Backbone:
């Protein structure tokens, strides 16, 4: 029986070739599964439990660690295409003929690549806090991230507070609430990402930022694009660009919100996502 909430969903593993993928799986076993693809440096413990639980109230939801990250074995790929290949291998090993994808930040890069390379596998696409290959300002991700990590170390605060949220009172409050939610799970937590895996992910992001633009007009799946209006990691104009280039895409921009807009506005985001997936 599926667990009632993400905070107590057991860790599971599935082996694909030589790679053991760690994942969590909850929600009803009917309809199209929603596969969650996460951000730079993220493990299973970095998926917002309010977003996961909200989606799992109506859908089967599967969160997975990238290869070499958290509980997953192997060496983390240095490019997005290889990450997409891994995700496809995982999805097929789970026995899913078709899935809905929710990609946040780097996970959104991976989701786009899957939709382009394996279109029959994807029913619907949710792209959040993300942008296209070669997108505006995305070559600055490494610098922005490193500066936030240094600031976090100097202030004894999680760098996500600076990376994902605005500097306003609303943004800071939402950031602290989000970080508290990530600590709700106290048992059977995932392993933290290693510095080597983190470095490989940064390389993959730099390569994605330097790629030639892809033809996103060939993505025909219904697509929902969401972000905050002040994303400093993947500038918000990239979300607008995605919505322009993917035919019929819906665009939601949250006010006074940053990269983590879907976490700050988790209630309206979940409602919008559920309506979109329905």
Residues:
């Amino acid at each position: 029986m599926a667990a009632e909430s993400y905070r107590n969903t057991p860790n599971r593993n599935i082996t694909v070739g030589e790679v053991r993928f760690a994942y969590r799986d909850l929600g009803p076993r009917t309809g199209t599964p929603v596969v969650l693809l996460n951000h730079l440096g993220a493990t299973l413990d970095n998926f917002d439990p309010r977003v996961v639980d909200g989606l799992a109230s109506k859908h089967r939801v599967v969160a997975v660690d990238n290869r070499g990250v958290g509980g997953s074995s192997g060496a983390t790929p240095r490019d997005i295409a290889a990450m997409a290949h891994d995700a496809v291998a995982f999805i097929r090993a789970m026995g899913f003929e078709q899935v809905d994808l929710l990609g946040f930040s780097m996970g959104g890069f991976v989701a786009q690549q899957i939709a382009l390379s394996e279109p029959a596998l994807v029913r619907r696409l949710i792209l959040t806090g993300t942008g296209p290959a070669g997108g505006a300002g995305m070559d600055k991700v490494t610098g922005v991230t490193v500066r936030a990590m240094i600031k976090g170390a100097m202030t004894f605060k999680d760098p996500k507070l600076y990376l994902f949220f605005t500097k306003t009172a609303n943004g800071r409050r939402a950031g602290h609430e989000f970080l508290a939610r990530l600590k709700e799970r106290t048992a059977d937590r995932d392993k933290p990402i290693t510095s080597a895996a983190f470095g490989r992910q940064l390389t993959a992001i730099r390569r994605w930022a330097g790629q030639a633009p892809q033809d996103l007009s060939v993505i025909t799946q219904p697509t929902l694009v969401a972000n905050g209006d002040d994303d400093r990691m993947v500038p918000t104009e990239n979300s607008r660009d995605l919505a322009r280039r993917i035919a019929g895409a819906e665009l939601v921009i949250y006010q006074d919100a940053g990269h983590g807009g879907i976490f700050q506005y988790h209630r309206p985001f979940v409602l919008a996502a559920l309506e979109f997936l329905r």
